[in-house]
Amino acid sequence: MKSVKHWIDGALADGDTSRTGELYNPATGEVSGSVAMASAADVDAAVAAAVAAFPAWRDASLVKRAQVLFRFRELMYAHRDELAAFISSEHGKVHSDALGEVARGLEVVEFACGIPHLLKGGFSEGVSTRVDSYSIRQPLGVVAGITPFNFPAMVPMWMYPIAIACGNAFVLKPSEKDPSASLLMARLWQEAGLPDGVFNVVQGDKVAVDRLLEHPDVRAVSFVGSTPIAKYVYETGTAHGKRVQALGGAKNHMLVLPDADLDLVADSAVSAGFGSAGERCMAISVVLAVDPVGDELVQKIVERVERLTIGPGDDPASEMGPLVTAAHRDKVASYLDLGVEEGAKLVVDGRETPVAGGGKAAETPGFWLGPTVLDHVPVGSRTHTEEIFGPVLSIVRVGSYEEGLEIINGGEYGNGTAIFTNDGGAARRFQNQVEVGMVGINVPIPVPMAFYSFGGWKASLFGDTHVHGAEGVHFYTRGKVVTSRWLDPSHGGVNLGFPTNK
Ligand code: NAD
Prior knowledge:
CATH class of the largest domain: Alpha Beta
Enzyme class: oxidoreductase
Radius of gyration: 25 Å
Structural class: alpha/beta
Number of domains: 2
CATH superfamily of the largest domain: Aldehyde Dehydrogenase, Chain A, domain 1
Bound molecules: nicotinamide-adenine-dinucleotide
CATH architecture of the largest domain: 3-Layer(aba) Sandwich
Distance between the termini: 73 Å
Pfam families: Aldedh
Protein name: methylmalonate-semialdehyde dehydrogenase (CoA acylating)
Number of helices: 16
Strand content: 15-25%
Largest sheet: 7 strands, mixed
CATH topology of the largest domain: Aldehyde Dehydrogenase, Chain A, domain 1
Strand order of the largest sheet: 15-16-17-14-13-19-20
Domain Aldehyde dehydrogenase: 18-482
Organism: Nonomuraea pusilla
Number of strands: 23
């Protein structure tokens, strides 16, 4: 049985051993190990290590920081299979999908390797007589990242490569459901030459989160998780004077216009709805089918869903794995009966899906639920509006583009959305009118590249700054403007007037 610990000041740390959590293999339902649960004192130890490491790291040259990042990138790439195996064994997602999240995370490391360019300031010569002005951006100090279970490598990598490249010291609090990836990443940072204490990991739950939120030495907090916790983190962190970006939940709609290529739409809806068992904040969970395409589209979706192979994440034949915990599987499965009670038609029942090496999903040990399709889901029903975060695709029939747009804009969340059409004018209208942070046009999961920023609108983001890209650099630094005068020849003289440009 494995025992997952903290990583503080360049070494594994037991911390307070009075509280631990259980780790599971979601494919079998068996306990696979335990994870430490940090006390407030453990968090204090990690923050103290970061505080001590910060001054030297802040003063390391940009070139030196970039060199460490390049080495980290190479090590992460070399260990990607090992990392993916950890993810798959604790999260349940299939190995190829876990490799995909590592690859997308590495893009942020690659972006951060360009830190000498990203931190170039502005310089204006001669803003007044013999006076120059220039702007610089400096690191904040100790910053923290609190991350969800669904991307145990990629979501932390949205944060720490840029934070560290900017010269900060970082404390990561990963999800207690799949914590092993964080320790491999910590070891690789050390191997890459990052000084001890610049990257620390505290395992745990609310106790650790609350201490990070109130700790006076933590300057900024990046959070990704569900909306209620994102709101709590934002409110608590800012009340303690911290800079906070808190990304929340989602309910992403795909709007299908009648002129769309329905085979492309069906492929996209199935890929985006059931990849990673729907446990993605950018998953498509609602298809808005504009009349008259609904019946034909549902038929094409069902054909594809019935061909999917459901099985353990470490089996190369599996296309979709189990859900993360029994409790989460039960919650997701409860929407199947609820959907029917609310008036939807259960077209594919994921409880009946055969699991490779087992029986029906509902009867196989492990946290299984197959891909489920609910058609004619009523607008505004709980099945339509609530984040289910599992392999449940709802089809909502709508009469027009306008009706579809109104449904999307009327929703609580604003993370991702997509329109499928061959009409460029309609697509352009959509990108302009839709109240969502990330928009796909014939692209079902429009996750921005590392050099753009990732983030939603409305209840999908609390704070002003999205993650990575230019906004990430901005979040982890603060600006300073210097105005300098070198007198030639040197002379003085008192002047109480406000400095103006002469
Ligand atoms: P979660 O909110 O339960 O947990 C996220 C983090 O908060 C974890 O580290 C957890 O330990 C901590 N936490 C949980 N309860 C807490 C509490 N009461 N007080 C303080 N901290 C607490 O989320 P999850 O179930 O791990 O992840 C799934 C959620 O994350 C979904 O809602 C999904 O949409 C969202 N998500 C959003 C994005 C995005 O970019 N917007 C990306 C990935 C996941």
